[in-house]
Amino acid sequence: MRISTRGLHEIPSLEKQKSEDLYIGSLDPLQSDDRLTRVPAFNKERDVMALVMTLQDMLPAVQEVTTFDYPQACAAMRDIGILLGSIKRHGVEPVHVVPSLEDRLNLLGEVTNLPPRDTLIHYVRWNPEGSRLRTYTGTEDEHQLIKSVQVAFHPLYEAILSLHDLYHVSLDSSEFSTLCDQVISQFEGMVHGVVNAKRNVSPQYFAEELRFYFDPIQLNGREYLGPGAVEMPVFLFDHILWSCDVEDETYTAFKKAYVPYNQAMVRDLYAAYEQRPSLVSKAVQELSNGDDFCETRLESAKSLVRLFNLLKSFRAPHKKLADKAYEHAAKDNYREKGSGGYEPGVLHYILQLNLNALQNLKARIQVYERK
Ligand code: HEM
């Protein structure tokens, strides 16, 4: 049965999303282009006072925020976000030193239909290129971290939309393998992202410096997570492919923690697949149905295995990267949790669940081959 998209937010085409991203990147509604170039030096000098004054200078009045349209509000949140992460990096809660933040952030969150703070989308997709790039540290490592996520973001989005289409195709159709190969080539962007991070981001620098800019901040009496790569909707890809019907409290809580940090279309798709069999469960069911043997069905199932292997090609090296970074963190007695509030052990846990689902599919294929 086709997953209903009635009542869901519009799913924008990739082209539309890319041009909107570029447009938001080009905006400077708080006139912060110059001001933000000084942030890396303030962070290096741990000059919290200068960071707070910069934030106060650029913070728009409530009246001004109400005049912002959607793209302006996204760009304004992106720029305020650089100061939020910077101030928090030095152990200070931004809202404690600038109480008027709460009103403005809540308003910006409403206009953008996103949380009342910056997300990975602000930091990566809406961050302008070149000399206007917003960073906390201005270092090559941070540039490369942003680039690593940038090369992966749109391909992941494309892969999710194609996977959503694939969900509705039967294993008996030759279209299944073709579409599956399309998802595979789109998801490769995630692998490229991790390869770039592995080559160009020092795990030690990440562990000792960069990750602290992505710490949660207090607002409205609760915590809001910072713009770490963990917010990428890989959890939605998993959800559709193999995990929407996996009853695992830890992983379900993990996925649900990041849903709100994504745009409406991701949130809608996540909800639409809850209470559904995953694509893999559907495939296993199709392989178990009837006594007949169909070559196309077998080929389709094997292409699903290739897709799983690619997911592993993202997860296994990414886990190694995270383990290496946190080795440094442990040596220096830093706290062990990642920006998403999870310990790196969660990566092993997810990878294991991922492999279990793959194993289940492979076992079913073996039985089918003997038919
Ligand atoms: C030095 C580089 C990196 C390190 C040390 C690192 C570390 C981590 C850690 C510790 C987590 C666990 C959750 C948490 O943060 O609380 C995590 C999750 C995650 N990270 Fe990274 N990461 C790095 C780069 C990247 C890049 C470049 C991408 C994407 C292209 C990425 C995508 C993800 C995703 C999607 C998750 C969620 C878990 C999963 O789906 O397996 N990370 N990362």
UniProtKB/TrEMBL annotation:
Recall the GO molecular function terms of this protein's record: heme binding; metal ion binding
User: What is the protein's name according to its record?
Assistant: Uncharacterized protein
Alphabetical GO biological process terms:
L-tryptophan catabolic process to kynurenine
Q: Which residues cross the membrane?
A: none
What InterPro entries does the record tag this protein with? PrnB (IPR015029), Trp/Indoleamine_2_3_dOase-like (IPR037217)
